[in-house]
Amino acid sequence: MNINPTDSKTLVTLDCTPDERIETVIRSAQKHGEDEDPDHEVGDLQDALRAAWGCMSAQQRSDLMASSEMIQILEPGMLDDYSVLPADFLREEVLRVSVRIDRDADGNPSIGSIGMFDDQADPEIDWQASGIEGRLIGMLERAVIYIAQQTWDVLKESGTPDFQSENHILWDMKTDRIHHRHGSVGVRTQTRRIDLASQLLNRELGGQSEAPNLQLMDSPRG
């Protein structure tokens, strides 16, 4: 399952027809930066954006933030900011996410299925029809694939992994805790618990390295 981060049913098309009034603001900011200091251009444009924001209605603000033009501007930072991912899903009334990870013959992970739930165990939320942003789904996919691959690397170092093993990730958005269950189907599984998962993912996927806050717990099959 590959979802473009900008794919979303909520995207809004803006009328970006050139307007001399806004071009005058941009040229004025540019001249201020050229005459004095480049930082003045940035500051003037920030002030202009905040002023425009203050004049907008709540619906206009929502339309701007949901536009493809704004998504393209924000996308790099948004995709890297996993620290707010749980809050984003909670705003969509998604409390828990359950993901099955599949692997090919070489052990490469892929998304098998995604289940989302509110405060009830059933029925499962139809997230594909609910209007949840494609950007959030893309971030979720990258996060769980990273967790699965990290666990896989640990298993490879400790011995020969079982390609047919169970591989299931449950993310509780309220507690920001991930439980990654893996092991031989019907025999024994281990559960890898990751606390403050969004903070860990933000560090790791952002290119920084820090020891993950996790615990490994044997979970024998009964």
Structure commentary:
With 222 residues, the chain is α+β, with helices and mostly antiparallel strands. 43% of the residues lie in helices and 21% in strands. It has 7 helices and 6 strands, in the order H-H-H-H-H-E-E-H-E-E-E-H-E. Strand 4 and strand 5 form a beta hairpin. Helix 1 packs antiparallel against helix 2 and helix 4 runs parallel beside helix 6. It starts with 19 loop residues before the first helix and ends with a strand. The relative contact order is 0.12. The N terminus and C terminus are likely disordered.
Note the topology.
Layout: H1 20-35, H2 38-55, H3 58-65, H4 68-80, H5 85-91, E1 96-103, E2 109-117, H6 134-158, E3 166-172, E4 177-184, E5 188-194, H7 197-205, E6 214-220
Antiparallel strand pairs: 1-2, 1-3, 3-4, 4-5, 5-6
Helix pairs in contact: 1-2, 4-6
Summary keywords:
222 residues, alpha+beta, 7 helices, 6 strands, 43% helix, elongated
Largest sheet: 6 strands, antiparallel
Total strands: 6
Mean pLDDT: 76
Taking the alpha carbons of the first and last residues, their distance comes to 33 Å
Low-confidence stretches: 1-11, 207-222
- Number of H- or I-type helical stretches: 7
SSE order in H/E notation? HHHHHEEHEEEHE
What helical percentage do the residues reach?
A: 40-55%
How are the strands of the largest sheet arranged? Answer: 2-1-3-4-5-6
Shape from CA axes? Answer: elongated
Strand content: 15-25%
Which structural class do the helices and strands define?
A: alpha+beta
Radius of gyration equals 22 Å
